[in-house]
């Protein structure tokens, strides 16, 4: 059996690829990629001759079986995404699981990552972070996800398209209009832009086009400050405690959940007490 290589590729600037990655791509028998048109440009730039095989979300079930058969027959394969690291908000998880189940060797060839690239230059806390990738598209589900995550003491990393970036920032603003965010676009390219400020200021920069809605976006959300002392709410009733958070611009559902977390109670118990059920 051969080796399945997971190869990191540039996220914008074609120079951001390692010597090892180029060497692997030149020597493997096959390259599995999301979009052959995108990978062809990289291969042409570095004179990589390996044949390309399409591997994406819509054909991964069939192609996983095919690629595993090829690996078992001694064909060496490199898996790449259109940009950055395979499997990180990109296809490949099922292939790696299948390869490991068949005792096929899997090697990672590190490379760039858009989320960490934006985090390094954002000026937001970087020691603890949570990668969320792409959020749900439906507003209700997206808001529920953010309401849960934005009260963690961890910088959040989100990928977003230019068509939805403003809507996602508005959702963040609904939850906490005093939260700092950072928006990165065109990372590693000529017109790279990374802007960090309060969410309402960032939205105004979209409105006046100082941040164009062009290119793929990374949104970073500063984590909630961890409370040093929780004794402040001990003399409050449940109703008073929930009302306090609502007055701090938190949605009632999120406020109830937050009170449950702080008091180590079940959410439905806090809900019943607050609503006098």
Give an overview in words.
It contains eleven helices and ten strands. It has 277 residues and is an alpha/beta fold. Helix content is 40%, strand content 18%. The chain has three domains: 3-112, Tetrapyrrole methylase, N-terminal domain (Cobalt-precorrin-4 Transmethylase, domain 1, 3-Layer(aba) Sandwich), CATH 3.40.1010.10; 115-221, 2-Layer Sandwich (Methyltransferase, Cobalt-precorrin-4 Transmethylase, Domain 2), CATH 3.30.950.10; 231-274, no CATH class. The protein has helices at residues 19-27, 36-45, 60-72, 93-101, 114-122, 139-149, 165-175, 199-207, 238-247, 252-263, 267-274; strands spanning 3-7, 30-33, 52-54, 77-79, 105-109, 129-134, 155-160, 180-185, 193-198, 217-221. α3 (60-72) packs parallel to α4, α7 (165-175) packs antiparallel against α8 and α9 (238-247) packs across α10. The model has no long low-confidence stretch (mean pLDDT 95). The radius of gyration is 23 Å and the shape is elongated. α6 (139-149) links the parallel β6 and β7. The chain has a five-stranded parallel β-sheet, sandwiched between helices. The protein has a five-stranded mixed β-sheet with strand order 6-7-10-8-9, with helices on both faces.
